[in-house]
Amino acid sequence: MWWVLWVLAALLALFCSLDVWYFLRAAVVILRAWFQPPVFDITAEQVLTGRVTPHDIDMCHMNNARYLRECDFARFSLYTRNGVFKGVRALGASMVVGATTIRYRRALCIGEGYELRSRIVTWDDKAFFLEQRFVSTRDGLVCAIMYCKQSVIRSSPDKIMQHLCKRKVECPEFPDDLQHWVNFISASSQTLRAESGLEEKNK
């Protein structure tokens, strides 16, 4: 009897201190992608399907933060199937989200199905840039679109691409809207560095 109470107490502490469902969902997504056919075109669009559940909503439509959470899982699947995770591990690197921006065009309502379409658009010497779209299966409308800057640590996107493709890969051109966002990130970074005095310290 006592061991049951200990297990329940341990589970309660675990669920109170960690977002357990996030880690369980991430593990399921990665395992599922692992057993799916690999995608050899690293810039190819990949699609995950979903449906708005009561757990996702506020005021009968999908909560703003849920879009970003679903994008996390879609990127896990994308990187597993196109080999980017494999290249990152082989080079002893890691990746973190450096910036995101999302535009909401129409609410996804409870029970509504959607496709989450993710693709690597381009990259520079420090990060991959991805586009992720929420497309309603009801009428095909793009309900939300997000750009993500996936920064590479202890390596570079170019080295990862060369490792996977066994050759030098030309970087696709930046679309105008993405370039404007990248310029904003750069300007914001310079402003914050100036405010914190980092520019003066580095001189």
Automatic annotation (TrEMBL):
InterPro entries: HotDog_dom_sf (IPR029069), THEM6_lcsJ_thioesterase (IPR051490). Belongs to the THEM6 family. The lineage of its organism: Eukaryota, Metazoa, Chordata, Craniata, Vertebrata. It comes from the Eukaryota. Transmembrane segments: none annotated. This is Protein THEM6. CDD domains: 4HBT (cd00586). SUPFAM superfamilies: Thioesterase/thiol ester dehydrase-isomerase.
